[in-house]
Structure formats: structure tokens, C-alpha cells
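Why do we care about 3D structure at all? Because function follows from shape, and shape follows, mostly, from sequence. That is the central idea of this module. The next example makes it concrete: a single protein chain, its amino acid sequence, and then its structure expressed as C-alpha cells.
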Amino acid sequence: MSTAPACPQCTLENTYPDGANFVCADCGFEWPQAAAATEEDGERIVKDSNGNVLQSGDSVVVIKDLKVKGSSTVLKQGSKIKGIRIVDGDHEVDCKTDVGQMLLKACYLRKV
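And the structure:
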């Protein structure tokens, strides 16, 4: 039995390891073995706009003005947020800001 995971693109199980990557024999898609191992372990890797790995408890800065949905307020660029939490879902970062408690996407944040 093969230890290679199913292809994330076509979901078929006809995959094999090739150097540092896994390769799907059906669609030709390649992905790194290290990324597959961390996702299987249940650890979620969240990266900021510069590619730095974020962890719960980190401090971040907002890199652009963000309109708060359902309100007329704006979370300003340069706002510092302390003590973030990494959560599952589309919006990966749960935090308390000067505007209030909210979920943010990591692509709009930079690690301090």
C-alpha cells in the first residue's frame, strides 16, 4: 500500500513520491511532500502577506484600510493588533481590535 496521499487537484490516488515532491500520474500535478505532511498532522499553517508563519499570540499590523462589513467604520492601515488566535475557516485570524472583535484574512496582515 502506498503512503502517498491522494492528488489535491483531481482527488485520484494514483500518486507517487519523486524527490521532494509528490506527483499525480493521472493529471501530472506536483506538490511538495513537506506541505502534505503538515496538513496530515492537523496543524494549520497560516502565513501573513510577507510569507511569515503566524501563530496564536503573535502581534500583527494591518497593511491596508479594511471596511468593516455591516458598519460604516474602517480598520485603518497601520493598526497594531496584539494576541491573535489562528482559527479554521476562510478568515484565519481571530482578534480584538479598536473597532471590536473580528475575524480577518491573513493576507491583509503583517507580522511585527
